[in-house]
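Protocol step 4 of 6: structure prediction from sequence.
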Amino acid sequence: MEKTVFEITKMDCPSEEVLIRMKLDEIPEVKSLEFDIPNRMLTVVHIGKLKEIERSVIDLNLGGKRIKTEQSVQANFKEQTNQRKLLWAVLAINFAFFIIEMTTGMVSESMGLVADSLDMLADSFVYIISLFAVGGTLVKKKKISHLAGYFQITLAIIGFVEVIRRFVGVEKMPDFSTMIIISILALIANTICLYLLQKSKSKEAHMQASMIFTSNDVIINLGVITAGVLVNWLNSNKPDLIIGAIIFILVIQGAIRILKLGK
């Protein structure tokens, strides 16, 4: 049994972790994967096949580089049983706020809330794929990756087109108070997700990545809150449209990353 440590310079969120899992799932000699996302490190416990594993990691174009290989006496490779429960809880929170923000965004005419709802949906997709990464067939993972990626891109493009239409068309003033209140609630939801993941004290990437992953959501929430304040202050819908456009672009980038999981 061997233990090989890789540095993955472009590994900074659960999407890369799932991508690596799916790639190395194809090698039966790989027995265990341990991710340290804050330090961009991956530890692989395996039986031989070092060159194939190294080539697979490098082929992902995530800046993978082998640091060292040593003998290992690790014998227990069982996933923690509470990991699925935590992922399901975080998934439920994200999907619930996707519905809440999408509904209130459409009612209040806020593209910022609509875009943020898609970001919540994107998070939900990542956690769904992560659940399959914990245990599931490679075929299922790839199918979900494709469906999630294309669906997400389609919604984001529709939203982006609507932003452009509102920029050049008749000005529709969003309800700034709804923007602020719902975004504050979403901010609280993201904080709860972070707490649940950190509470596990697990070294798994799903948990360790939570700080980096959720910080992006927090920034987006604060952006929508700021846009709501500016809408009221400037009496203009432009701040809402600008933050909406920015979030739609981020969602599209995330969708492209998810599509890579299905290759």
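Step 5 (inspection) to follow. The radius of gyration is 20 Å.
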